[in-house]
Amino acid sequence: MVSDVNFVIQGKTNGDRLTVKTYGDGVIGEFDLKFDSTGTFNDTVQICFSYSNHNIEYPISIGSKETELKAYLGTYWLSKRFVSELLWYNNEKR
To answer: pTM for the complete prediction?
Structure first.
């Protein structure tokens, strides 16, 4: 079973291409962000985490815990990393 965290991002770019790379708990995903003719973008990217059936709280974001935004312009690129705090999953039924 998988749990998702949504990363909502919006802004403006003068680049040719814009990507978001997510790491979750080990599975890497890279997604192209779509932007209009003025370079404006507004998107939601899902960051996936797996979990087990333990009835205890434990960290689900182990490892890098970061999301990377990368803008490309021709052969150049610029990246910005967004680092999260430790995320916890609680499987107890309430």
So the answer is: 0.71
